[in-house]
Amino acid sequence: MSHEVHHEENENASSSTSQLELFNLIGGSWPPAPREPERLEYGSVPRGARRTMQHSGHNERIKSVNLINHLAPEKRKIRQNTSNRPGISEESVQSNKMVNETKKVETGVLIDVCGGDVNEEFYDSPSLGSPRAVNLEASSQSPPVLDDIGVGSLVEVATDVDQNYYGVVRWIGLIDDIATAGVELEQSVCGLGDGLHRGSRVFTCASGRALFVPLPLCRRDARFTDTPPPETHHTEIGEQPECPVVTGVVPPLTSLGDLAGKNRGIQGHHNSCYLDATLFAMFTFTSVFDALLYRPPEPEDSPHYSEVQRVLREEVVNPLRRHGYVRADRVMKLRTLLERLSDVPGLTCEEKDPEEFLNGLVAQLLRAEPFLKLSSGQEAFCYQLFVEKDEHITLPSVQQLLEQSFATSGVKLSEVPAAFIIQMPRFGKQYKLYQRVQPSPLLDVTDLIEGLPRQCTVCGGLARWECSSCAGGALDAGALCNSCLRLAHATRPTHKAVPLTVSEEYANILESCPVPRVYMELFAVLCIETSHYVAFVKTGVGHDAPWCFFDSMADRKGERNGYNIPEIVCVSELGSWLSEEGRALARAAPLDRHLPAPAKRLLSDAYMCFYRSPDVAMYR
Predict the structure, then answer these.
(1) pTM for the predicted model, two decimal places
(2) Nearest by Cα to 281 from 322, 311, 253, 306
(3) Strands (E), 543-600
(4) Most buried one in 237, 259, 273, 599, CB count within 10 A?
C-alpha cells in the first residue's frame, strides 16, 4: 500500500511540474490549475477527451483540436444565446449540437462534419502555426458579416490561430435552428467530409473539403473584394466613365461605330498592358473564344471556376461589348483571382507576356480544350515559330515562317483549329530573328492539316506523295502526284517520299476537281515595344473590314496619383500594309523611321498573331 501511495505522489508531482513548465512556457494563456467545471459549448470536445502533446521546442504552444474553438469571437454570442435559453439544460444543448464530434483529426484545428465517435487521443500538428490570443480591439474593427452572402459566395472562416480557411458557399440552411453554411474549402483537410451531414447529402464536393459552420462566422473573402480604382483617394471617380456589371449574354461588336476615342477599351494600370491587349483582341469583335464565357462547371473544375468565369464575363467582356469601357479595378479583380488561384506569380504587379496570362486563365482556371492538336499527340493553346534565319529574306510573311516551322518539326495539325495563335520568332522584347515580319491576312493551312487532300505542286492534281527534300522548307512544294513523283525523283535518287492519306471515297471526285483550300482569317495582332503591349484588331468579318488600334495606357491624367486613359483609334489604311502593295512599300523603306507609325508598329513590333476559322468556330 505504501508503494502505491508513493507511486501516486510521484505522478502528482510530475503532473504539477508539467503544468508549471507549460505555464512558464506560454505565459498565462494556459491555466496552471483546473478551473471550474467546463460548460459544454457549441461544437466543442469534452475536456475528458482531450489530450495534448508537450512539444520539445520552447517557442511552440498547445492548440485546441477543434476548429470551432478557434473561430472568430462572434461564436461566443451564438453559444451563450443557445446555452442561456430558459428551460434548456446542458444535456439538451449537447444533444442539439450541429456538428458531431470528430472521428479522426490530424490537423489539430479542424473537425469532421460527417460525425462519428471521438477518438481517445488527439495530437496537434505543429505545421499549422502557433495559436495566438484574440485581439478584441482588432476583432471589433474587422469587416462586418455581410448580409449578401449566398450560395456561390467566396468566403473565409477566420480563426484565432495563424491560419484562415477559404472556400465557396455551397449550401445555406438551418441545422438545429441555427443558420448554417456548407462551405467547400479550397484544399482538402484530413478529417472533413464530402458534403454529407448526419447521413444526408447536403451538397457534393471532393472528400475532405466540406465544412459546416454557423453563417455569421463566414465573411467575404478579403482576397477577392473589389479593388478600388487606382489611386482613388487622389482622383475624382466621376471623371472616369461608369463601368457597371453587365449580366446575361452580350454578343461581340460587328463594327467600330462610336467606339473610337479616349476612355474607350480597357483601362490599364500597373503593368496590365499584356492582359488588356490580349482580352481586347480575344473578345471585342469576335466570338471565337466565347466558349470560355459560358461553359458550365464540371466536377474537375476549381471551386472558384464559376467566380473566375463570372468576373471575366460580367465585369470585363460584357461591359466592354455593351459600354465600350472597362475600368482598371474590374481588371484588377480578375488579375487578383488569377494570381491567387494559378501558379503564375506576379500577375497583379509584374511585367508579363500574353502567353503567361493565357496559361493562367485559359489553361489552368478555365480548363479550356486546347486550341491546337498536333499529330504528335501534343496539345497547345498557341504555337511558337522556330525557324532558322534565311539571310536572303528581309521581310518574311507569317505564312512562310509557319510552313518552314512545320516542315522543320515534322509535325502536322490533326484537325482544323477554330483559333490559331502564333508567336513570332522573337524572344521577349530584346531579340528578334527578323527585324520585320508581315502578318498574312489569310493563312492557308491546307498543307498543315493531317489527312486533308492536297494539290500536286507541279500539275495541280490530287497529290499522293510528300517529299520533304523536294519541299525545301515549303510544304506545298513537296506534294506530288504519282506521275510527277516519278519525273521529279528520276534525277534525285536520294530523295525519299512518303505516301499521303487520301480518302478513296473522294479520290475519284478530287482527281477531276480542284482540291479545296482551307484558310484562316487574321483578326488581331499584338505588338510590343519597350515592354509595352498594344493591339491591332479587325473590327468586322471579311477582307475589307477596317482595323483599329488599341492602347490601354495611351495617355495619363496626373502623375503618381493619376490614372491611365485608354484609347481606340481607327486605322483604315492598315489593310493595305498587309497586302502585296504594302510589302512593296515596306521594301522601299529600309529604315523604320521611313514608315508610317502604324505600319512600323505592325511590321517591326509584331509579337503574336490571332487567326480564326469562323466555319469551325460555329461547331466548337
Answers:
(1) 0.63
(2) 253
(3) 547-557, 563-571
(4) 273
